[in-house]
Amino acid sequence: MSTGAARGRRHSGSPLDILRIFAKLGVTCFGGPIAHIGYFRDEFVTRRQWLDEPAFADLVGLSQFLPGPASSQVGFSVGLMRGGYLGGLAAWLGFTLPSALALVLFAYGASALHGAAGEGLLHGLKLVAVAIVAQAVLGMARSLCPDRPRASIATLALGLMMVSPGSLSQIAVIALGAGAGLVLCRGTAQPISDNAAMPISRRMGVVFLALFGALLALAFAPARDGAFALFGAFYRCGALVFGGGHVVLPLLRDAVVASGWVSDSAFLAGYGAAQAVPGPLFTFAAYLGALANIPSSGPPGGAGGAVVALLAIFLPGLLVLMGTLPFWHALRGRADARAAMAGINAAVVGLLAAALYNPVFASAVHGGADFAVAAAGFVLLVVWRAPPLLVVLAGAAAGVGLGLAA
Predict the structure, then answer these.
(1) Burial of 182 per CB tally in 10 Å (0-12, 13-18, 19+)
(2) H or E segment to which residue 321 belongs
(3) What φ, ψ does residue 236 adopt, rounded to 5°?
(4) How many CB atoms are located within 10 Å of the residue 404 CB?
(5) How many helices (H) does the chain have, and how many strands (E)?
(6) Residue among 167, 138, 161 nearest 33 (CA)
(7) Angle formed by the axes of helices 335-355 and 115-144, to 10°?
(8) What pLDDT sits at residue 358?
(9) pLDDT value, residue 293
């Protein structure tokens, strides 16, 4: 795409179009945050060309540094750059509401998937995630690791993550990638393209960061009212977790189970249901908010509690993202910053490759038949260029077949 064409596409997406596109992703994106990033790359870099590979990788790298749900932050950023603030809101709503609504229904007694067919369906979706992540790793490696220095950085990042997995290790690996890029990638880093617009000014960035800090201080203050106590507990969880996804579970359990708001059995049942729905795992907060019962002030649960908990857990990550983006966007235009970003992007490829093995591959592929299904999905995506939705449906059907045959 030419630069002129890219400029013409800036902020040209209507919020309704963005909502529609992200709603489709919200009902098809199974497999956790790493798989979500693979879906986003296929949709917005490969198919729609809303931003290029380096700009997308920059967003992925930034999301690893910040607290909050990484894939939701990437999706919100894509919507923000495409359609401004309303575009970002539409992206978040479309991607988040399907799984949040499903989990609230489960909290009200909707049955979970049981039996061989239900378990096979979930297993098939995990196998699709293997194919999706493998496609993303391959495509990003081709674009972001085309030479020896960057391929070496990616391989080193892969090795370090395999030896020492965890969210803190992710941050360390990205920092090492930046340092290696400054040393090894000064002659290879490409100029930053301008097709990723930034609708947030630096002044507004400071406002968002100040609001993030002020709400965090309030979240630690004692609260007698049930709704404020609920908001504070979930805001703390969203603000203090790095890596997103399953990393937030211990914080949530401490917030709602240890305090007596939700029983341990209900917490575990909801966590199981959260594995059965697409979209971000942070929507587990809606289930917990619907069930929350704060004895000292009466139950703020139900639909209102679900809304409070959902907004509270996502808000800190989105505020700190909007506060950081304008400074990140300006910094990445400098020559030394481009070299560092080249190293960071290569490290992100290594991170995704490590996640492809564990937990995506290791938790899904348990035998030859599983591997065959995952490989078939990969070929459909890469060679046949089949739509991801078709691959999701085919993988789910194959999983049901394997479950019934077992």
Answers:
(1) middle
(2) helix 302-331
(3) -60, -45
(4) 11
(5) 18, 0
(6) 167
(7) 150
(8) 84
(9) 83
